[in-house]
Write a structure and sequence with these properties.
single chain, 14 helices, Aminoglycoside 3'-phosphotransferase, Chain: A, domain 2, 5-stranded mixed sheet, elongated, 22% strand, 44% helix, Phosphorylase Kinase, domain 1, alpha/beta, 17 strands
Length: 399
């Protein structure tokens, strides 16, 4: 039986040469395909090349070399709509490390799926007992791929994270599928298995301390101080020049760190199976001082109540969690120093809450959110700046 050869169809539009590939590319047709492609590039003076592999069934090493030659001649070369089978061939050959390669995007529906988490970036749905789907509110493909790259780095560094390589389309939005067979949200487990509550806090704290000891080899990580400084600049018309100066002094006083922070860490952002923990909701990984994560223990609970949502734990469980968490995180510190650190966390929680108001996308007008953020800064942050600075300067090994 005669094999179906690869047909090549090219379309040039607005400086981009789109090349559709169908069938197979191997030693029987690679030379003729290469000639057709380079002839079209020369004819159109194309600088940007996109290979559409939606109907490509197979590509051999010799076929891959054709695209690599194009990549060498025209660095702005990409291949899209790659099937899972062809992607596996390309990935195993190391091709995907050289050429930007994107799988074909499946379209799925989350209608009827339970929501298990939500933040400013997206909504997490449980599609079945083995998987969750994170649907992003605004992220484009490049943003999602950036997050996936950071998460893979974190996983390689020893941080237990949910890793996805499957991007999907949900209506007009993009999403990512994560396989989490047998996992449940840590806060749900803690409420059900109260006899082991303290043990779960110990596991949570150990994971947090491990996260805060990791450095990722990626200069794309945003420094959290820079992110806050940029965001709070939006308050310059609501704060006096003196108040803005004090706020910037506060940000400048927070020691720079090149270690990872989650930027939304709490018992609802961790899943657990048996005693194995898994970080989820990692789209806002940054680098910076651990206090940005630690204050989330306070912010998550208080902000949930203010927003009208059910709190994660009862008041008694919340206090128990906070006391246990801070005692374990600041192991070796004297009680007086730990109390200072906890007071600083509470003020810092207000600082983070103001940031959340500014970053939110919840239907409330930006002017209203700015006013709420400015009120928090004036009433709950600026009066206690020196106490927080003093706590940050204490000689904690863990701090």
């Amino acid at each position: 039986m005669k094999r179906k050869c690869c047909a090549v169809k090219t379309v040039f539009n607005d400086g981009v040469l789109a090349i559709e590939l169908t069938g197979r590319i191997d030693s029987t047709n690679s030379i003729s395909i290469r000639k057709k492609i380079f002839a079209s590039i020369a004819k159109n003076h194309a600088e940007s090349i996109i290979f559409d592999a939606k109907d490509l069934k197979y590509i051999s090493n010799i076929g891959q070399s054709v695209i690599l030659k194009v990549k060498k001649a025209k660095p702005d070369t990409h291949i899209v709509n790659v099937s899972s089978e062809v992607y596996e061939i390309l990935d195993s050959a190391g091709f995907t490390d050289i050429v930007d390669t994107r799988k074909v995007i499946r379209e799925i529906s989350v209608d009827g799926c339970d929501i298990i988490g939500e933040n400013n970036y997206g909504i997490i749905y449980r599609s079945d007992e083995n998987a969750v789907i994170k649907v992003y509110k605004k992220h484009g493909l490049n943003d999602i791929e950036r997050e996936m790259g950071l998460v893979r780095q974190a996983f390689i560094k020893g941080i237990p994270t949910a890793v996805s390589s499957d991007i999907v389309k949900c209506g007009e939005r993009y999403g990512a599928v994560f396989e989490i067979a047998g996992y449940e949200i840590l806060s749900d487990r803690m409420k059900k298995d109260t006899a082991r509550f303290d043990e779960y806090v110990e596991k949570f704290t150990a994971l947090v301390k491990k996260l805060h000891s990791i450095e990722l080899d990626d200069n794309r990580l945003v420094h959290v101080n820079d992110a806050y400084r940029c965001r709070f600049a939006e308050l310059k018309d609501l704060l006096t020049a003196e108040e803005m100066s004090e706020l910037n002094r506060f940000i400048d006083s927070i020691p720079e760190r090149n270690t990872v922070i989650h930027s939304g860490l709490h018992a609802g952002s961790i899943m657990i199976r048996s005693d194995e923990q898994l970080l989820i909701d990692t789209d806002a990984l940054m680098c910076g001082h651990p206090i940005y994560d630690m204050c989330e223990v306070y912010t998550y609970l208080s902000f949930s109540e203010e927003a009208g949502n059910d709190p994660c734990f009862s008041d008694e469980m919340c206090i128990r969690f906070i006391n246990k968490f801070t005692a374990l995180y600041f192991t070796g510190s004297i009680r007086e120093d730990r109390d200072k650190a906890v007071s600083a966390l509470k003020v810092f929680g207000e600082y983070r809450k103001a940031y959340i108001y500014l970053a939110a996308d919840d239907g409330i007008s930006f002017e209203e959110r700015k006013k709420s953020a400015a009120d928090i800064i004036k009433k709950n942050v600026l009066p206690d700046i020196d106490a927080v600075i003093d706590a940050l300067e204490m000689d904690f090994v863990e701090w």
